[in-house]
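Notebook B, p. 112. Complex prediction, attempt 2.
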Amino acid sequence: MRLTFGDEVEAFRQEFRAWLAENAPTAEEMAAEPALGSAHLPGWARSWTRRMFDDGWLVPGWPPERGGRNAGSVETLVYLEELARAGIPRTTNPQGLGIIVPSLFDYGDEAQTRDFAMPILRGEVSACLGMSEPGAGSDLASLSTRAVDHGDHFVVNGQKVWTSGARFADFCFLFCRTDVDLPKHKGISVLLVDVDTPGITVRPLAEIVHPERADLSEVFFDDVVVSRERLVGELNNGWAMANGSLAHERSMVWLRGVLELEEAIGRLVAEAPDQLARMDPVAAAVVADRIVDSYVDGLAARALGYRGFAKYVRGGSAPEQALMKALCSESHRRACLVGSELVADQGADMAPADHLRGQGCSWIDEYFGTFGATISAGSSEIQRNIIAEKVLGLPRG
Amino acid sequence: MDLDLSEDEADLRDNVRTVLAGICPPALVRGIHEGTADTGDLWGRMVELGWPALAVAERHGGLGLGVVEQVLVAEELGRVVAPGPLLATTTQFAPAVRELGDDAVAARFLARVAAGELTGTLALAEDGRWEAGAVATTARPDGEDWVLDGTKCAVLDGASAEEIVVIARGSEGLGAFVVAGTEIEAAPRLGLDPTLPLADLRLDEVRVRTDRVLVAPGSKGVDEALARAIEEATVAVAASTVGTCRMIFETTLEYLKVREQYGRPIGSFQALKHRMVDAYLLVERATALVYYAALAIAEDTADRAVAAAAAKAAAGDCQRLLAQEGLQLHGGIGFTWENDLHFYLKRAKAGDALFGGAVVQRSVMARELGIVTIGGGRA
């Protein structure tokens, strides 16, 4: 065990830091044209992705032709740390870059790699992930969006929901049922579907606190014709991709969870002294205990995440990583609750308290936002089922 | 930050675990609980194996390993509910002597620790408080000597340790002294867990000669040195508690896989699965924080005080849940004396108070982090 990485890794960090100083988008650029959803590519995002791709900083672990530099896992971790430190988003299309592109490299053919994966890496197009349905959320294998095989094309009918970025995406990585007679896991395939294909309707879902924000959508498919060339991998091999997708998604997602949590707790600790100084001392002591409890959560998330990561780098099993999603998202939610209760009369205010100008978001606003992480991509409850069965070896019910 | 055990660290841990399985079986723990066994043979074996010398510097006759290794050993001691003087001697007495003592005095005592010739402990707490600021035991100079007067509480091995580091307050500030156990009147506590025996100590005009003064009251750097020693002791206790909790977790998990009701293992019920995952999370969380704190101390980082307090707070949270769920999920069998589970439950509970439970630790952190400024100084 040791606290710092080796000299070579730190040299890598300095190299990326120097590159960032020259190439990162400015705060003004980003503020002038904010990303409106998780597949929206504002002008700055397109050129930023392109710069990273050209200079091998988009996916450092990949070879140069795929926008990387064959970096190792520890270097990739350092790279993500530095982006977070600088407050620069790596991408405005996380599903495209983090899940769909790697899945295409794993399962797609040459044309699909050329026409769909590479353009995402160059910042030219964006993609959304068509997984959840009204009747298939946590139980994804029950999905019923149907793609009927007509030889040279499929005809798709059905509905997706909670599709992030659908209204901005160029294409959808669509999970659909291609065989109704096989067991549910075995009749699923993936199609690459242009979102502007006739028969597709995208209906954005306004969010509970910010109705003007609508990153999630319902997507309806009504006799949508999709050419057979758009079938990814083998027919009925979609379930393997669904599992693979999530593995891609989870490989370094824990770090984002840790960094977001630490950032929130840092704000909580920073604003506490002023608020507590105005309180009745007994109330202040009670609240301080909760704040410190959250601080322990943040420290624990970091320690546990890095411990799991070190095991993973050594090639061992890292059961800690399975805990990270629930730990980080639930800790973040708890910290927001503590923050919202810190200023007694402003707990339900949407505008940030005076002393939080610049943050742009009140604690209660942020609190509701954290449910995005505790519900999506395998809810906290599903995470617990998975850990109980896959890590702890408890029998299926 | 690499918080996975290195090969050497893992080897040490595995070696200690294997040895302890042989020399500290549940039957010994039961014997301690039932008053039919003592710790003499166990301690003798540990001395033969050189364990007291592990974290003593080589120049003092030790093996020169550090706090990380010490913490790994403490975790294993907790795992098997090991009784005996190793924990207090190596994680309380030795760090206090090393951090507080001048070289000559420290060398003499540490060499004896390394040789397994001495058992020791640290007498810090008073009136239920572990903060150094709360120490009221007085140290009064008398010619060349010092005279100590006061009452200490909850001293681990306080009735049996041969040498005791006593923290006392002079007119110029805190000092530290090594007092022979025989010179102190000890009142053993009737504790839940006889493997962590506590005693209250009464120091009644105890005279200490200069060769037993680790540091005279008011000397430069006493507060910082004492804080460092307390941090080491605190993290070691946290490690021991975490080791015990992990054992409760593993035992309970195994039980859920074999105990059947309604025709299936009770571990297949989702209500119990989710509770086990929450228990698992608290064990892993506390483990990671204990290792982080050990590293922070070993590398003397600026946040070592916060890291140590966070580790102990997390160990406290961990034992609260694990002792409760461990017993509840074992059902009636866990409620019986004949099942071994209660040794672990009691150890987990008993260790929590030492150097302050979760609430005390969070109060330390609240001050260290500048969240609150009310009340007295730091621990």
